[in-house]
Amino acid sequence: MTKTRQILCIDPEPSELRIAALLNRRGIPASLTEATVPNAIQEALSRCAWWDLILCDAAAYRELEASSSHAELMKDADASLILLQTREGEALTPAAAHRLGAADIVQRGDMDHLLMVCERELQNCVTRKELRQVREQGASGTVAKAPLMLATINDMGKMNKPEPPKPAAAATSHRQIEADTQGQDRIKALIDAGGLTLEFQPIISFQPQEEHRGMFEALVRLKDDDGKVLPPSEFLPIAERAGWMGKIDLWIFRRVLATLEQMQQGGHPDAVLFVNVATSTLASERLVDALGAFATTANLSPGSLVVEVRKAAFVEAAAGLERLIERLRAKHHGLLVEGAQLEDCAVLAQHRDLITHIKLDRTVAEGLVEGRIPQSRLGEFVQCARREGVRIIALAVESAELLSLLFASGVDAIQGHFVSQPYSDLVYPSVQQVEASSAVRWSNRNH
Questions:
Q1: Domain 183-436 fold
Q2: Would you list the DSSP string of 392-403?
Q3: Domain segments of the chain as ranges
Q4: Assigned CATH for 5-172
Q5: Which DSSP helix (H) or strand (E) runs through 199?
Q6: What's the predicted TM-score (pTM) here?
Q7: What is the DSSP code (8-state) at residue 373?
Q8: Strand partners, 6
Q9: Does residue 196 sit in helix, strand or coil?
Q10: Ramachandran assignment for 147, one of left (phi > 0), alpha (psi -120 to 50 degrees), beta (any other)
Q11: Which tens digit of pLDDT belongs to each residue from 372-407?
Q12: Residue 297: CB partners within 8 Å, gap ≥ 6?
C-alpha cells in the first residue's frame, strides 16, 4: 500500500494551494494539514518525523526561523521545506532560501512549479527516511520494521497514535482517490453556488415553568443541483477532510445569529437557538475570535444562544474552547456538550463552571428502549447533573415508550423525530425572510 504523504502547511491562506488534491490526481496520495496560529505551529513542528513535506509562507518562516526553539524543533525533520513568496513582498533568492534551510522557493500562484517541486521533495523525503531507518537499525543491531502510521486529516491530537496496517484489499486505488477528489469538487461547487441552508429542529421542554419555551437546534443542510436536501452525513465528512469546517461554521454562526435577532425582534424575545461548532474550528484562534466577536456584538436576549461542542473539544481544543466560553459568558449565553454518556458525572464536575447543558448520546435512548440501560442509572445521572447546575436534553426520541421514561427520570427536554421534525422555516415567518436573503456565496475567501 502506498503511504499517504503528510504535508504541513504553515500559511495564511493554505486553501488556495489545492496541492493535496493535485498530487492525488497524479497518483500520489497526500493529505494537507493546516497550522496557522503559534500553538498549532509549535505542536506541528514538535512532530517533525510525521511530516513528508512542509510548505510555508516565506515572510512567516523568517519570523519563525528567528525563534530560539526553531532549530531544536527542526533538527529531526526528514521533510523538505518549501517556501512560498508573493510578488508584492520582499523577494528571496534561492540562495537566501537555502540559507534558511529551505529546499526550494516558489512564487505563489505558480502551481506547475510548485507541483513539480513537491513531487521531487516528497521522493527525497522517502529516501531520507529510509536512510535514517537503516542507520538506526545499524546502531541498535536489530532490523525491526516500524509500525505504519496511517494518515489522518486535521487531527493533530491523534498523530502520535500508530495504527496497524490495513489489509491490502483496503488500499486506496487511484480510482478511489479520483472519486474522492471528484466528491470534494462537487461539494465545493454546491457550496459556492449558495447550496448551504439551515433547518431548525424544536427542542421540547418537559418543564412547564421553563424560562425559554422556544428552543431550536440549527441543522446545516446542502441542496444539490436538483434542489434535493443532502443530510450532513453526505457532505460534512468531505468538508472536514478538505479543511473547510471553519469557514462553514462561520457561515452557520452568522446565519443563526441573524435568524435569532429577527425572531426576538419579531415578537419572540424568549427564543433560544442551539448551534454546533466543530472541534477543528475551536483549534483556530482566529476562528474562535471571530465567533466570539459575532456572539458579543449580536443584539440578542441574554442567554438565548447555546453553543454545542463535542466532549473531545475539552482535550483537543481546550484553549480555544475556554476563549469562546469567556465571550459567551459576557452575554450569559450557554455551552452544551454533545454525546454525553451516563458515566460522565466526573466530566460535569470537572467543568461545572463551563457547561450549562448536556445532550445525551443517542445510544442512551436506544439502551433504555432495549432494556440494556436501567431507568435507575439515568435517574442517578440526572441527579448528578442537577447538583452541577446542568440541564439535560435527550436526543433521538423516536417512540412514545421513551417519553414516560425520560419524564419520570427528570430529563429537562427532548429532541427527536417522534416529537419534532426539522423545519426549514422554523415555523416563524420572519425566519423565512432571513433564509430568502441567503444569496451570498460561500467561498474560500469568505471568512
A1: TIM Barrel (3.20.20)
A2: EEE----SHHHH
A3: 5-172, 183-436
A4: 3.40.50.2300
A5: strand 196-205
A6: 0.58
A7: S
A8: 31
A9: strand
A10: beta
A11: 999 999 999 999 999 999 999 998 888 777 888 899
A12: none
